[in-house]
Design a protein that fits this description.
With 297 residues, the protein is α+β, with helices and mostly antiparallel strands. It folds into two domains: 109 residues; 120 residues, Immunoglobulin-like, CATH 2.60.40. Helices cover 54% and strands 24% of the residues. The chain contains three helices and ten strands; from the N terminus they run αααββββββββββ. The strands form three sheets. Strands 3, 4, 7, 9 and 10 form a five-stranded antiparallel β-sheet that branches. Strands 1-2-8 form a three-stranded antiparallel β-sheet, with no helix packed on it. Strands 5-6 form a two-stranded antiparallel sheet. The longest helix is centred in the middle third of the chain and has 70 residues. It is rod-shaped and about 190 Å long.
Length: 297
């Protein structure tokens, strides 16, 4: 009886200990499972953070290249681009040196990268606008230059035509001499048929009517070249200006021209009149206005 009671009392603690062991074992298994799960989650997070870091790194490298590729002649925009490029360099250096990654850290970097990307878009828009404006101005400038060149060409053509017209008018305004003839005169001013009987020579011609000519007084000159080929002159100083040179004349006369036909007579009173061919040239207003050849017997 006593032995039976003692056996029952001894079995109770042994069951309790066995239960505690089971509980401890279960807790240990649970703890091991939780630890494994925690380490798996941490490994997964580190892998995700590494992917995010690489993504951010690539984005920053791309942004930095985009900043380098932007070109502008605007000094202010170029200076600001340099500042933003330095920010991208600094952020990339900080990102590569980061050792304690977390979701908050990743979000911070993502926000800063997003800000840089937004700034990039703003400068791209500004530069595109400036380039568009520059192209427009270049096109306008080219059109303006073309118009200027066209107008200059028209002006040159108009000036050339005006000069041509002026030349035509000046040529058209020249008074011409027609019906030029020469007569041998005796000492009594009668015409003679023999040059040997002549005391002087008379040159006759008509100044033709010309509405384009300026009316008024002017001097007309006649140059007579005798059969010997020399100019016949009344005096040694009988010269007039013609095309920048001095030309010897045989006779001259002042006339009043009024745009109508005008009969003119000039007289040569010198010697040396012989039979032969005479060449007569008439000058006025700086032009040779007529010439002819006459044979005296």
């Amino acid at each position: 009886m006593e032995d039976y009671e003692y056996g029952e009392e001894n079995s109770v603690p042994q069951k309790s200990i066995q239960g505690y062991k089971i509980i401890i074992l279960v807790l240990a298994v649970i703890l091991a499972a939780l630890s494994g799960l925690y380490f798996m989650q941490m490994r997964s997070l580190k892998k995700d953070f590494a992917i995010e870091r690489d993504t951010l790194t690539n984005q920053l490298l791309t942004l930095r290249g985009d900043f380098d590729n932007l070109r502008t002649e605007n000094d202010t925009i170029a200076r600001n681009l340099s500042i933003e490029r330095q920010k991208a360099d600094s952020l990339l250096e900080t990102l590569l040196q980061e050792r304690s990654y977390s979701r908050a850290t990743i979000r911070k970097y993502q926000k800063e990268v997003g800000t840089l990307r937004s700034v990039m878009r703003v400068y791209v828009h500004q530069i595109d606008s400036l380039n568009t404006l520059n192209k427009h101005l270049i096109t306008e400038n080219a059109d303006y230059r073309q118009r200027v060149n066209t107008e200059r060409l028209r002006a040159d053509m108009a000036e050339e035509k005006a000069q041509e017209l002026d030349v035509k008018i000046r040529k058209g305004s020249v008074i011409r001499a027609r019906d030029i003839s020469i007569a041998a005169l005796s000492s009594s001013d009668r015409e003679v048929t023999r040059a040997s009987r002549a005391a002087r020579l008379r040159v006759d011609f008509v100044l033709t009517a010309n509405e384009l000519a300026t009316p008024g007084e002017r001097t007309v000159y006649a140059q007579i070249i005798g059969p010997d080929g020399y100019v016949m002159a009344n005096a040694s100083n009988a010269v007039f200006d013609f095309e920048g040179d001095k030309k010897t004349y045989s006779a001259k006369r002042d006339i009043d021209y009024q745009n109508q036909d005008l009969d003119v007579r000039l007289f040569y009173n010198g010697g040396g009149i012989t039979a032969g061919k005479y060449e007569i040239s008439v000058y006025m207003d700086g032009y040779l206005i007529g010439n002819t050849e006459v044979l005296l017997r």
